[in-house]
């Protein structure tokens, strides 16, 4: 356990700055809760602006020191070694996360194992970053470009997929030669320390990856710190807008991966077994606590009633329980605040006239009576007039709406301020690819749902974000270009005329 001491039988963590665990300067702390049991899990440093400043200074020193002096190839090899270390420790990392966010151990374990693919990929790209020679009219002038790191990057990640999102965010930034100050969610802070420890065990110099924990004050301090060149944030739309405004006031860049209200469209010619599984996976996997959740299902009217009957029957059979156990299909929601939000938004939907088909209340699981469980919930006949169709629930709540024709459902699917993802189920190749072009979403799945890869770009349209992770273009967001000019001849320039 990577803790500085223990308190009340649970681990106690400090910040991780410059390769050392250190207590918060003001010795303030907060407690995280295990949502399955409802009991305290661990204690973490409540960081202030002073702690953030320490971390940024450590990251700046590493950038100017051993990390900055490494060749790109050597840097890439260290990222690959780090990926191997994480894969070796995937199960304990996953267990830490499941105990803190309530997601299935099988999913957290799978995510912790596959992040090595991101580090292998971006480690391999580290020495593929190249400048160029610019052809000019004047043969005596040499003009070329250099691609250089931005500097210190602030990475602020959510609680639902901590390791995966952390590595997705950090791998291209590190491959480009930047250093990191990482702020994990206060709900799932523990795994960040394990990742930082494993990075140094793999040979990445101290100070390249620093971890500060805390609530809003520490996040604000990272966004506004003059030593931070760019902010990478994954989280809610309102928080993303606030971060973008603060960063913009000092002309710092942002990559933002925000919320979604994704459409999952089932056409009449769909393979219904496949579509049923995809719609269920789109919303009830991870208890609906994913930005790509397919929370709006549109089903062709000709198959609407039998298809919805199938969904409801399957939803009622989902096994709630301890996410550490293999037989569990859905764990608790992560926080009491999220549980309250689920209850409130379901209540609003009922007030608005949406038809509750199943679920809709807090669930009690024997042996875990204090756990934060919510029933898999389905509403039928919902429209854009219902508030729940316009706002992200981030819980296990599905809205199902019938449609009659392609143009109608396209307008409904695009009729949201979000644009993170969309899915469709059809046997028509013509329709599938035509819709893929017209759907306003950063990711479109055809006859599948909820899939990501290290080499396929991911990000949102509209209010779902700015920029992309994954794929070769991700590294471009962490580089700046310098243009170098050199006169090779002996010509004397007119001092009062621009050289062109």
UniProtKB/TrEMBL annotation:
<feature type="domain" description="Aldehyde dehydrogenase">
    <location>
        <begin position="26"/>
        <end position="484"/>
    </location>
</feature>
<dbReference type="InterPro" id="IPR016160">
    <property type="entry name" value="Ald_DH_CS_CYS"/>
</dbReference>
<dbReference type="InterPro" id="IPR015590">
    <property type="entry name" value="Aldehyde_DH_dom"/>
</dbReference>
<dbReference type="InterPro" id="IPR016161">
    <property type="entry name" value="Ald_DH/histidinol_DH"/>
</dbReference>
<dbReference type="GO" id="GO:0016491">
    <property type="term" value="F:oxidoreductase activity"/>
</dbReference>
<dbReference type="Pfam" id="PF00171">
    <property type="entry name" value="Aldedh"/>
</dbReference>
<keyword id="KW-0560">Oxidoreductase</keyword>
<protein>
    <submittedName>
        <fullName>(Z)-2-((N-methylformamido)methylene)-5-hydroxybutyrolactone dehydrogenase</fullName>
        <ecNumber>1.2.1.-</ecNumber>
    </submittedName>
</protein>
<comment type="similarity">
    <text>Belongs to the aldehyde dehydrogenase family.</text>
</comment>
<dbReference type="InterPro" id="IPR016163">
    <property type="entry name" value="Ald_DH_C"/>
</dbReference>
<dbReference type="InterPro" id="IPR029510">
    <property type="entry name" value="Ald_DH_CS_GLU"/>
</dbReference>
<dbReference type="InterPro" id="IPR016162">
    <property type="entry name" value="Ald_DH_N"/>
</dbReference>
<feature type="active site">
    <location>
        <position position="257"/>
    </location>
</feature>
């Amino acid at each position: 356990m990577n803790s500085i001491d223990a308190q009340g039988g649970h681990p106690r963590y400090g910040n991780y700055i410059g390769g050392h665990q250190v207590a918060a300067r003001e010795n303030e702390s907060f407690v995280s809760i295990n949502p399955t049991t409802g009991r305290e899990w661990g204690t973490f440093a409540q960081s202030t602006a002073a702690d953030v400043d320490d971390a940024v200074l450590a990251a700046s020193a590493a950038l100017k020191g051993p990390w900055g002096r490494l060749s790109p190839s050597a840097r890439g090899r260290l990222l690959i070694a780090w990926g191997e270390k994480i894969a070796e420790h995937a199960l304990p990392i996953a267990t830490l996360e499941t105990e803190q966010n309530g997601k299935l151990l099988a999913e957290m374990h799978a995510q912790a194992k596959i992040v090595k693919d991101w580090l292998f990929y971006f480690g391999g790209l580290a020495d593929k970053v190249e400048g160029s020679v610019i052809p000019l009219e004047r043969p005596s002038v040499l003009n070329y470009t250099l691609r250089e790191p931005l500097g210190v990057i602030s990475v602020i990640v959510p609680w639902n997929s901590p390791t995966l999102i952390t590595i997705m965010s950090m791998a291209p930034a590190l491959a480009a030669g930047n250093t990191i100050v990482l702020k994990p969610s206060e709900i799932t802070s523990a795994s960040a320390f394990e990742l930082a420890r494993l990075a140094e065990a793999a040979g990445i110099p101290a100070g390249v990856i620093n971890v500060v924990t805390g609530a809003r004050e520490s996040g604000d301090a990272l966004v506004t710190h003059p030593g931070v060149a760019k902010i990478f944030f994954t989280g809610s739309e309102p928080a993303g807008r606030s971060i973008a405004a603060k960063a913009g006031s000092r002309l710092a860049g942002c990559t933002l991966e925000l919320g979604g209200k994704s459409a999952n469209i089932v056409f009449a010619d769909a393979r219904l077994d496949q579509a049923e599984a995809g719609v269920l996976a789109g919303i009830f996997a991870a208890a609906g606590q994913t930005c790509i959740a397919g929370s709006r299902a549109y089903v062709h009217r000709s198959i609407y009633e039998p298809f919805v009957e199938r969904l409801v029957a399957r939803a009622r059979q989902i096994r709630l329980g301890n996410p550490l156990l293999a037989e569990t299909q859905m764990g608790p929601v992560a926080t009491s605040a999220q549980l309250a939000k689920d209850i409130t938004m379901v209540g609003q939907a009922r007030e608005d006239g949406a038809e509750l088909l199943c679920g809709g209340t807090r669930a009690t699981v024997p042996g875990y009576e204090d756990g934060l469980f919510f029933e898999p919930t389905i509403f039928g006949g919902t429209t854009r007039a219902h508030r729940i169709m316009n706002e992200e629930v981030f819980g296990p709540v599905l809205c199902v709406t019938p449609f009659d024709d392609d143009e109608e459902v396209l307008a409904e699917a695009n009729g949201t301020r979000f644009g993170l993802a969309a899915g469709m189920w059809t046997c028509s190749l013509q329709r599938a690819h035509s819709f893929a072009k017209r759907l306003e979403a950063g990711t479109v799945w055809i006859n599948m749902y909820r899939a990501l890869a290290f080499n396929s770009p991911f990000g949102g349209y509209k209010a779902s974000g700015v920029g992309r992770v994954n794929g070769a273009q991700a590294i471009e967001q962490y580089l700046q270009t310098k243009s170098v000019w050199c006169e090779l001849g002996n010509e004397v320039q007119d001092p009062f005329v621009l050289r062109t």
